[in-house]
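Bit of a strange request maybe. I'm writing a small parser for structure token strings and I need a real example to test against, not something I typed by hand. Could someone generate the tokens for this chain?
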Amino acid sequence: MHAILHNHEFNLAQQYLSIATGLFVSLYRSVVYPNLFIQASTYPVQMKLKITITGPKVHDVGYRYFLMSMALDLGLLGFHARNRKGKTEQQLIVLVEGDKENVEDFKALVDVRKPDRSLVSDITFEDFGGSVTKAGDYAQFCTAVQINKAIPLLLDIRDDMKEMKGDVKEMKGDVKEMKGDVKEMKGDVKEMKGDVKSVIANTEAIPQIYEEIKEFRYDIQPGIAMQLQQVQFDIRAIKERLGMP
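Reply from user aminoacidic:
Good idea to test on real output. This should exercise your parser:
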């Protein structure tokens, strides 16, 4: 009887230990590795896709950044895009990776959305089995490329600003010189005003001078007439002496 009770207690202890171990493992899985032990059926189906965009103008229109923004917005895990020169037209090769639903949404957007200045003649889609760059890493790469492109422009802007500062300094000197010229012109204008006043004063005196000349003419006119008569008389006397008619 004692042996039977002892075996029963041992079996209960094993059951309790099994239950406790199961609870501990479940708790450990949910806290430390919440996604590690999820059943395979609950994982989203992953998909990789290669997209080839062909057309007369798919380079240098911001196509790669246009597609990258859509990929990031849809939460795709992988994205990579590169330009390639085709036989007759330009090409853009795009690789994407992510949940099948998100990749399908991206595929649909690529068909209907294009940069404004692009010219596309064909878009093809095919499954891809290789590795795809993480979308975040590609975004960082694009940022570095844009910064590298911006550096020469920023240096040119800096040089232009230096040149503009020199021009502004020269203009300030010209303005200062112009101020001196304006000051000198004001002095000349002031002097001219004085001359004009003098001319006006002289002009006002002209009628008075004219009247004086007129009176002088009247004064000398009788005397001149008498002198002319005397001259005529003397000439006539000389002719008579000489026997001239």
